[in-house]
Amino acid sequence: MDAAGPPSESQVVKNVAELRLSDYTMSKIQFVPLAPSSGLIVYRTAETGTSHGKNLSANVLIVAIWVQRNGKGVCLFSQETAAK
Questions:
Q1: Pick from 44, 42, 46: which is nearest to 30 by CA?
Q2: Cα-based distances in Å from 79 to 14, 50, 55
Q3: Positions of E strands within the chain
Q4: CATH fold of 19-82
């Protein structure tokens, strides 16, 4: 989601088509149960690589709400924020 609103599936595919991660680390993972079959997950990522021919380096804080549906985990919402 950005100022233009939610992207289409084809926009997402186009944006990540040339993404190549060389390193990806998750840390500070926390889980908060919301109900017996759902929870909030908060974590931090550090990633490096290339995107569309340019070097990429990012530290990101992520929060996501997951539920269990028909025996599978489904992400209902996630938000990423650049971290310092």
A1: 42
A2: 20, 22, 23
A3: 19-35, 38-51, 54-69, 72-82
A4: Nuclear Transport Factor 2; Chain: A, (3.10.450)
The rounded distance, in Å, linking the Cα atoms of 27 and 22 is 17
Give me the residue spans of the domains in the chain: 19-82
Q: What are phi and psi of 16, to 5 degrees?
A: -100, -5
Tens-digit pLDDT profile for residues 33-54:
999 999 999 999 999 999 988 9
Rounded mean pLDDT for each run of 10 residues along the chain, 84 residues in total: 83 88 97 97 97 93 96 94 91
**Cα angle value 22/42/46 (rounded, 5°):** 20
The pTM assigned to this predicted structure is: 0.78
